[in-house]
Every structure is written in C-alpha cells, then in structure tokens.
Amino acid sequence: MLYTGTFISSIGTGMANALYLYVTETAAPHQRAWLASSGPILVSLGVLGSYVLGALTTWQYTAAISIILSILSVALVKFLPESPAWLARHGHLNEAKKSLLWLRGPGISYENEYKELCDDASIERRKKNSKIILKTAFLLLNVWKPFLILIIFFCLQQLSDAHRLPYKLVPNPFIIIVLNNVKVARTKIKTGTQPLWDEEFILEDIPSDVMSFSLTLYNHGKRSKDTEVAEVIVELTNLPNGEEIDGWYPLVGATPIGEWGALHLRIRYRNDLAMPLEEYSPLQQLLLDPELQFFLCRK
C-alpha cells in the first residue's frame, strides 16, 4: 500500500505542474509573473495547513480533508474555459475570443491581446510544415531528451538515497534508541542540513523477547518541549548474525507529509547462545524441580 500510494502521489504531483502552464496562458500579461511565481508559496501554505490539521486531529482526518479539497478542485475544473492560446493555435478563433472574454470579464478591453494572440498563433501554424500528432511528438528530440534526462536524474537520486532531513522543519535533530518502548540511548543534538552524529552504541544482553529496535528522530525545542518527528524500525530477524551491514534506512514521519529523508546506519548484530537449546531444556527442568535439594559445603 505504501508503494502504491507513493506511486500515485508522485504521478499526481507531476501532472499538477500543468496548472502552472494553464495559469500562464490564461492570465493577463501584467498578472502572469506573480501568479506563476505564487505556486511554491501556496504549496508551502498547504503543507503548513496539513501540519496544523495533523496536530489537531489524526492522520486519517487530515487525509480525508485533503481528499475533499482535491475532489472540489477537480469539480471546479469543469467550469473553467479552455486556454485562449491553445484554441488560437488550433484555429478555433471564435472560441478563443469567447474564452478570453470570460477570463477578462465585462468592461475590460481585450482586443489588443486577442489580436496579438491571433498573430502569434498564425506565425506558429506557418512554422509547422505538417501536423504533429501526439504519438509522433514523443519522437521529437526536444521532447524525449529532457524527459530522459529527468528520468535518469531522479533514478540516480533514488538509488543514491540523496534524501536530506528537512532542515527548516528539523533544525536541531537528535535520535533516541528504543527497545520495547524503553529509551536506552540518545545522541547529541546536531545542527545543519546534513547532521553527522558519528556515535557508537553497544547494547549487550538484549532480552530474547526484543525482536526489533527503533531510532526515533526528535527536534530539540529551545523554548518548547522536544517533538517527535520520524522513526526508523530495524527488525533483528533481518540482520545477519555476526556481520556488519552498512546502508540507508528511510524515515517514516509521525505525520504523512512529504519525505523525511533517511538515516545512514552501520549495524552489527550478534546472537550467541550460552548453551545449546537441546541442553538448556533439561537444565531448566532440573533447576525448576521442587524436589531439588541444595547443600552448602564449607571448607
């Protein structure tokens, strides 16, 4: 489910970039700059709103409210007109004029903008010697080359696990090691975009009922209490006995908002038996025998 959700979320995030293109084509010339640049600000406000909802309610309610807003956005798309620039490029000049009138509203002159739109569309159509359909458009060098570069870049980023901690959200991180809900160790507080703890912890005589341990990431509050941010759970059964492993472990956030980065860990797990199992059971029965008698001898 996590992989499926991540895949769907990534596809949706990529397709949402078409909104910037629509805003650029439909906005008035004097409004295009600030409308196109307001996207990251609105995204930050949306993330802030999700954090507030996550703090006030559970993550299920936060996800439900986010879904409602997404459905509302999809429903409102039905009332939006087609881009005048797109209509003009495809020869639908009357529809482009109606769309421009709807977008600008009554009482606003749009004749000069409409004339420039028609001239640009006419020049662009003359440049095309033949009609390019969607299937052949992907064969153009200026289409598949940037697409291929982006795919290689993101694949290398994922394979190299180049995920940093969100510094603005976790400016003073530290980690607590937990065994069976018991805090057994803590790192120092670090700062910076790439915190490096370089600390070694040796845990001995781990009880047999402990099947995993967790590393919980906290943010140290200078004027407030420390807040839990994310955690990594390591299953002991997945660790080879006596061998040292070195790798990246993704952090799972306390709230399902974006990516929290990953921790690079070097772990050695050793499970030694003081007595073979076939000999331990008879010894246990002997020691627990109620008729067992002890004699103290003093020399």
Automatic annotation (TrEMBL):
UniProt key word Ribonucleoprotein:
no
- Give the highest taxon in the source lineage: Eukaryota
Q: Where the protein is mainly located, per its record?
A: membrane
- Which residue spans traverse the membrane? 6-23, 35-53, 59-80, 132-154
**A GO cellular component annotation in the UniProt record:** membrane
Listed GO molecular functions? transmembrane transporter activity
Pfam name, any one = Sugar_tr
Protein name per its UniProtKB record: C2 domain-containing protein
Q: Which organism is it from?
A: Aphidius gifuensis (Parasitoid wasp)
